[in-house]
Write a structure and sequence with these properties.
The structure is a homotrimer of 328-residue chains. In chain A, strand 21 and strand 22 form a beta hairpin. Helix content of chain A is 8%, strand content 30%. By secondary structure, chain A is mostly beta strands. The first copy, chain A, is flat. Chains in contact: A-B, A-C, B-C. Chains B and C meet through strand 4, helix 2, strand 39 and helix 3 of B and strand 21, strand 22, strand 37, strand 38 and helix 3 of C.
Chain lengths: 328, 328, 328
């Protein structure tokens, strides 16, 4: 139960209604009930105004659309994000250190750290104040994890890895895996041992089952505020600049440098040894094969068509270079 | 050792041959030996009739092709599927609850449940009759798992998640991971805490290392009979209808609703906030960017060509809009 | 600390300089310091010759570019790969068998095996000499792992799986997961139990969170020297020939046979039941829909363009079959 007054304070909003109104959940505008708080960004139809929510976060220009309690803010979506923290499940509290964890005597564990059962902390690992480590996590030797990070269940962090403050590493992610490097040796491949590490800044999120390889000689670098979704592959020596956000299933090949404030859509692929400057948006399912030196939006996605239509277009595409228009 | 009579009974087939013939393995038609059972669907060449198999499951119209023991059925492939269960490895038996598991006193564990070593069951989790949980599994607080589910090794199920009866969750899958939701806050991103859960129906299979995010406010929903292959990403608030089957490496972005009886080919990608109706087939490697409101088959895949040919076609494609035929 | 004499011996090189010079790290040519060894392959600019490295591995033709200690070899990149092994982190030593592992009395564990905490070894598993198993690993019943393999943290190996000598299985990989096989049964799907296994040759590397399904009846086969990067999906009954290298995020559908010495670029997808001969290169992001019976390079990738340019090309592409040039 949180009062509207507390919520208005959290989001720096102007309350129109009952400050003592008690909210017990945050809900979508259509699914809200009497004791819910919801938010309105203006993108939906008129019927949203018939929400059952007990309170709505919205812009002043939409204020008259709702007759219930209102909190007026400049950016309702951002306000919703801030308020969502107030409703986080209680199981995110720290729980202390499990008797079933194996922690090296040579690890340094700060106060207020929680470590779940069946987790392993290696020699000379440094775990700072307030870090929460789930169950079945592997933290290798010399790994450093700064204040208030959340390391979810079954994460593996190995090799020389530094993780900054307030990061969230989701379940099943692997950080510091061996980069894919081989030298040709006759008919076979000679493995190149990967001697670098991974350096992750503050406020970085890493999604479930995402993999980040350690560098071959230098580090793989993920700067402050980067957000990575699930099932992403970041190869060795990649660098990703501040506040870049990358959606699920993206693959980034070795040694590519991506600037800050980029947005990379789901399933995009970026080849190795490229440079992408700041403020580049790459749309979903796009392949990047050359450096991008100018900010802007880039694409190569082909949307689905009914397959009989697509097959005809494809047949033409596959012999474009032989077409008569080619000679005109 | 299983007799042909028992197999014919299992598949509701008509036995032509020795009912006491003892089968000790199920094999492909080419690799079968004297004591094997195999099946024939008619799709291969004449030499299949020279199989060494001791017995063949087949349609009546192919009966004279084989001189060995035969079981006549309407659908040999379906009969093979049914028979395969009889040959399942013995290690699928339940083994009781390991002394090396950590199980909350506040969890409810039914009879005939097996839980492997180094698994963790959280507070108020409810595990129904006959559920088999492998080793190193994390079942979070308040997770509910219904009768006879198989939860393989290293699976993580977290957040408010309900799993129906007879589901199989393969190794390394993560269910209930945090959705990828952020609000822009100046130059950085404000995390939106994900307060919803995941609701999974009966007879759902989830492949190895597949990830299913919990909803932001409402639930992510996977209906009865859905089959998901390996390394699939299902984002927050996605809904997938009954009996839809999705092949490996598919990514589905947030809030997309997919109907029932759809088939989605490997590596397909579906953008967010779309609606796809029932009975839609999406071919492999296809990108869906708009809602699909009509049943049928959809595609945007481009098959490989020798790269010198492809490069010429690609060169034309990339300047199609400047081509002379454009003006004709 | 390793002397140049020892390094020259390791790479069969000719030393020009001080044989007692002590190297303490391997670094890139730009980031090297006084006590570093580096290598020069000729691909960079003149300023490389200003490296601070105390020693350089290079070809004889580049010898005069550097005034520091030099080791002359035929293939500096291969020499670098060989030397990298000398600098591998000490934590790759074997550490014995953890008291916190659960090992079946019916498993056969050779000498000099290390097994990390919270790992499980099933009945009749056979672990040969010198194998190193990390923490939280699941090795199922009857799995066989040959000499000197490294099985990293949280790996799951299940079902009938044989792994050859000197393999490295990276963290989070799943080998032997259930193949995706179903028979249509009215409106729903009948699961086909997967009764085959996985056979992996010698010197195979498997990347982090990669999944390899076991065969439905016969085995999935990965031959000697194959290298698989992270987040790859190998479906049931796939066969991959010797020394083929596959980059990250590739998906290979069921029963496809890939020859030896192929190179498959990142994010490529290969449909099922195909045959690809030896010495085929498939470029990144390419889709293979038909068998490839001729060695060579194949592609279907479309590189990104600025999205306003791409949208125009795409608009043309999507109505190619209706274009006037089509009738000319």
């Amino acid at each position: 139960m949180i009062t509207l007054a507390a919520i208005a304070h959290e989001v720096d909003g102007q309350l129109e209604g009952d400050p003592d109104f008690a909210v017990d959940a945050l809900h979508g505008i259509q699914t809200a009930c009497r004791s819910s708080l919801t938010f309105y960004t203006g993108q939906f139809s008129q019927k949203n105004s018939q929400t059952k929510a007990g309170a709505v976060i919205l812009k002043s220009e939409h204020s008259e659309l709702f007759s219930t309690n209102r909190i007026i803010v400049e950016d309702p979506y951002l306000a919703y994000a801030r308020v969502s923290r107030l409703f986080v499940l209680e199981n995110n509290r720290t729980h202390g250190i499990s008797d079933h964890a194996v922690i090296s005597d040579h690890a340094v564990i700060a106060d207020d750290v929680s470590i779940g059962p069946f987790s392993v902390i290696g020699d000379e690992a440094v775990i700072e104040y307030g870090v929460r480590i789930g169950s079945g996590v592997h933290i290798g030797e010399k790994v450093s994890i700064k204040r208030r990070c959340v390391i979810e269940d079954r994460v593996v962090i190995t090799g020389p890895v530094d993780i900054g403050r307030d990061c969230v590493i989701s379940a099943g992610a692997v950080i510091g895996s061996c980069g894919f490097g081989y030298a040709r040796d006759g008919n076979s491949w000679q493995r190149i041992e990967q001697l670098g590490g991974v350096k992750i800044g503050d406020r970085v999120d890493v999604g479930a089952n995402t993999t980040i390889d350690r560098g071959s000689l230098d580090n793989t670098v993920i700067e402050d505020g980067v957000k990575l979704d699930n099932l992403i592959q970041i190869a060795h020596n990649v660098q990703i600049g501040e506040n870049t956000a990358i959606a699920g299933c993206v693959g980034i090949a070795g040694s590519t440098r991506i600037g800050g404030n980029c947005r990379i859509g789901g399933r995009a692929a970026i080849l190795g040894h490229l440079e992408i400057v700041d403020n580049v948006d790459i749309l979903a399912n796009t392949l990047v094969t050359k450096s991008i030196l100018k900010p802007g939006e880039y694409a190569s996605m082909i949307p689905a068509q009914p397959s009989n239509v697509w097959r005809k277009n494809l047949a033409m595409l596959r012999r474009l270079s032989r077409s008569t228009f080619n000679k005109s």
